From TrEMBL:
Keywords: Membrane, Transmembrane, Transmembrane helix. The keyword DNA repair does not apply. This is Metal-binding integral membrane protein. The chain crosses the membrane at residues 12-32, 59-83, 104-133, 139-158, 203-228, 240-258. It comes from the Bacteria.
Length: 259
């Protein structure tokens, strides 16, 4: 076996185990939430208990519970597209003679998912506030199905914007493609944060779809994960993003039509 093949196999093996563990955790979380009754709202739709406190639970406890499961879900969803980026980082830093590759790669991953953790905190606060308003204003609650279609349409249109193209390009760029990063912990941490910011911005529209259609729906998670992975890793990522935009706009128009 090639001496360079063993680290690659170990890296892929650890990544696969992490993906399986996070996917399993997401499925278990979804099953536990599905066992709870959803709230029927004016307009004929049901509100997920994701944005509610459980009996005897405090709001900090509810936020911590959501955030824990959000992180697990994001690891499962983002890892397929992140792993190649992390491997190219290892290759780039390895060319400098650095031997602490595992530690530095882990720092990149931690920085990356810290950004998604902050995104989850904002999503929970927005979801709780929106749910409270919808329960107090039945007229607004009736408009939610139309608003969902509108959000999906906007998410689809976002796929065609220069803003999306810029952040997708930054997200796809990685060490190993013409540049080498310094092999130190501070650079690794900043690289992870920067990559997380670009990727969260690039995925903003697709993540919004997940939040408004069903954060607990495994089918939606799978579709969004596939879309994010393909547009990030395919050779013609920008064209793929636009193709995804066409599909998303069609879905949004369909949601509005049935209403």
């Amino acid at each position: 076996m090639d001496s360079e093949d063993l680290p690659h196999r170990a890296f892929v093996g650890v990544s696969a185990l992490l993906f399986v563990a996070s996917t399993t955790g997401t499925i278990v979380w979804r099953a536990s939430m599905s066992a709870m009754s959803e709230m029927l709202m004016p307009g004929g739709w049901t509100m997920s208990m994701t944005w509610m406190r459980m009996p005897g639970q405090t709001w900090p406890g509810a936020a911590a519970s959501f955030l824990g499961m959000w992180i697990v879900m994001m690891v499962a969803m983002m890892l397929p597209s992140l792993v190649p980026m992390l491997w190219r980082y290892r290759q780039s830093v390895g060319r400098t003679g650095e031997t602490r590759l595992d530690r530095l790669t882990a720092l990149v991953g931690l920085g990356y998912f810290l950004v998604w953790t902050a995104f989850g905190m904002a999503a929970f606060a927005l979801g709780v506030a929106t749910a409270a308003i919808e329960m107090q204003l039945p007229t607004l609650a009736r408009a939610v199905p139309i608003a969902v279609g509108g959000v999906v349409l906007i998410a689809g249109a976002l796929q065609f914007t220069p803003w999306k193209a810029h952040h997708l390009a930054c997200c796809r760029e990685a060490p190993g493609r013409g540049r080498t990063l310094p092999a130190d912990a501070g650079t690794a941490w900043r690289h992870g944060l920067r990559l997380g910011l670009h990727c969260s911005y690039s995925c903003a529209g697709l993540t919004a779809i997940l939040l408004v259609i069903g954060v607990m729906d495994l089918r939606v998670m799978a579709v969004v994960t596939t879309a994010i992975t393909v547009e990030r890793l395919a050779p013609a990522g920008e064209r793929v993003a636009r193709a995804i935009g066409v599909v998303v706009i069609a879905v949004g128009a369909g949601l509005l039509y049935v209403r």
